[in-house]
Amino acid sequence: MHQIPPAFSFEELTLRNFSPHTFASVTHHLYQTTLSLIDEFMAMLDHWTFERRSHSYRVARLSLVIGEQMDLPHHELFVLGIGSLLHDIGKMRIPREILVKPGKLTEEEWSVMRKHPGFGGEILSRFPSLAFARDIVFQHQERWNGNGYPQGLKGEAIVLGARIFAVADSFDAMTNQRSYNQVRDSKEAVREIRDQSGILYDPRVVRHFCAMGKPEDWEHRVREREETLLHEIFPLEGFVGLFTNPVAEEGFPAF
User: Fold this and answer.
1) Backbone CA torsion sign across 42, 44, 45, 51
2) Whole-model pTM?
3) If you count DSSP H runs as helices and E runs as strands, how many of each does the chain have, helices first?
4) Secondary structure of 45-94 in the HEC alphabet?
5) Is 152 helix (H, G, I), strand (E, B) or coil?
6) What is the distance between the alpha carbons of residues 63 and 212, in angstroms, rounded to a whole number?
7) Is the confidence at residue 180, as pLDDT, over 90?
């Protein structure tokens, strides 16, 4: 899709004598617009897939709990939360008959389904205020042993946020009813993740996940107050921090 170039380049804007109040106002409007965009994305997924946003909320929260256990800095937690929340955004480009099919997918249907991480990365790349999360979205189906998709990345070639997400997503998939699984006990799910350490999951992430203690000690943090999640993982100070922390060459954190 052809994109209209901005009226002013970044360099030109920096030469204009805007007041601090003007910059604060613009930043606040951009923050509110991006927050509304995220909420709209989640609503669209609600209508397009068989899952509801509660899955994305739980996975985002659990990813953050693991990230906190790993003592990640605040700006990395910010990127982790948004990337985890929007991990399935690419499914909006997958035909709905595939997404809601009650039985097993054919190999041809799976080949289409496996495109959703790439679609998600493309979608976020179109929105400068969300592009910082695209690597997690693009790599969220990669696995430690290289058997994931879409690129078959292995080990630390996968961004840390996607490696954390993989553990959180697997735990949620095993402990909540989905169309293709039987619900497992939380302790059994933790045991399964531990058994796959170094195979599907980053051993360091699994070690910190297991160090969180018994699931009954932390699961309530994952499931409570869904209505407050967006403001929790997308705070204004975190958004502003994208522009004040050291960033990657393309302009956003390479988490």
Assistant:
1) positive
2) 0.87
3) 14, 0
4) HHHHCCCCHHHHHHHHHHHHHHHHHCCCCHHHHHHHHHHHHCCCHHHHHC
5) coil
6) 12
7) no
